[in-house]
Amino acid sequence: MLKTKINRLLLITFASAICLGIIIFSFVFSKRLKEEENKNMTRWAMATSLLATSNSIDGDVMKLLLQTVQDNTTIPVIVTDSEGRIILDRNLSIGDDVIPKEEKNEILAQMRTEGHMIEIPLETGEKQLLYYSDSHLLKQLSYMPIISLGMVLFFVIFAYMVISKANKSEQDKVWIGLARESAHQLGTPITALEGWKELLEDTDIDRNEVAKGIGEDIRRLSNIAERFSKIGSNTEFDSNDIAATISHIVDYLRRRASHNIDISFVNDFEGRKVNTPHNTVLIGWVIENLCRNSIDAMEGRGQLTVRLLEDSGRLAIDITDTGKGMNKKMSRQIFKAGFTTKQRGWGIGLSLSKRIIEQYHKGKIFVRSTDIGKGTVMRVVLCQI
Fold this sequence. Notes:
This protein is of the alpha+beta class. Helices cover 57% and strands 16% of the residues. The chain has ten helices and nine strands. It has helices at 2-53, 59-70, 101-114, 136-142, 144-200, 207-230, 242-256, 280-298, 328-333, 349-360, and strands at 77-80, 86-90, 117-121, 127-132, 261-267, 302-311, 314-321, 364-371, 375-384. The strands form two sheets. A five-stranded mixed β-sheet has the order 5-6-7-9-8. β5, α8 and β6 form a beta-alpha-beta unit. The longest helix is centred in the middle third of the chain and has 57 residues, at 144-200.
């Protein structure tokens, strides 16, 4: 959930930055283009005035003035006399279309409202008035932010849909995995209870022993139900000795695992209690998940060591096995929901463990080291000691 919010926040931030950049760029570019067009019109008016009032202009200067007038091929211009009658016009339309006089008068009225006007003094003392408006290029540029924002909006919607679909797919994997994991977790004690039932039908069985076994499996069922009830709820911490929590899980796994797998617990804090705040049920689930993965990786034979230690002032738990190990690609993917290397696995155990450690206990869980054919060390880092 946190990762989803971060991805959406990054997407919104990225899109906002693009939009802001487009707006700023368009504004600055439009402003500079407008200033350049104003300068061009001023030069155009000066050239027109010189052509109209000077009779002794050098030939090269005359060519330059004519070139200045003729170079305006984009900015719409209308020149009127002092009475407002149109004398000439340029670039009022795109192409060679002939514009009726009535339409020219409408364009002139629009230019007057825009306020772009330059006086051209004549030799007779009279003056002409040069009106102009933004070029077609500048007008098109004004639509650029709208078009760009539309494209960015399309990108944001598309990316949001992709992210949402990916998140939904991941959530589906989690829910399916939870359902299968719950069925798997419940299967073992239920099968055991069925076995105890069959034994009870045998009159020669020690009923006290059966009752003890049934009680243990009932506690196991209760523990499983409590584990799943903790997921998604407010996590309550206790200050029990975490070494006792780990030792209890190791003892349980030792009874259940193959006799060819040596499971040991090493406590670097031997002789003193480590009453670190933690949720006993959830931490026990994490340790059991990690240990079961290690047992599966050793394929029936090997050494599994669970060690409680101090790491840079923080409490740490190392689960070391002598199994088949992992490559780098696999070690980067093992915490993703749905990823598994087991033929009958669902890829939910480690993703749940990561959630329990990082979101509920504000710690870290990662592959400390792994070598193909030699084994793996998983590390869980909890709070400050």
